[in-house]
Amino acid sequence: TQRFGKEVIAPEDLISRDTMVDIFVDLRLLDATINLEQKKRNRKTSDLSYYLHNSIMEKYCITREQFESSYEYYQHDLDILDEIYMNAITRLSKMKSALDQE
User: Fold this and answer.
1) Cα separation of 24 and 56, whole Å?
2) Is pLDDT of 71 > 70?
3) What 3-state DSSP class applies to 77?
């Protein structure tokens, strides 16, 4: 990938686009869970946030550093990053629709 005439090299442990979509969906669900707990005035939301972030990284067998380096790489091509985000939004919308129909 190139940005501003400079070649950007993918990290060796680059997370695939599809997995990044999965991770973004899980992270958004995590944010919703934390927001719900904050509304309930649960004072331990920082502990919950830490636990949930770690559980997402464990679920995908990745490190935070691997996620961050992959995310940084995808930021160099905004078309790809937009595609990842749109796929995540589409999946979340389908999940919401399924819940609304229950």
Assistant:
1) 10
2) yes
3) coil
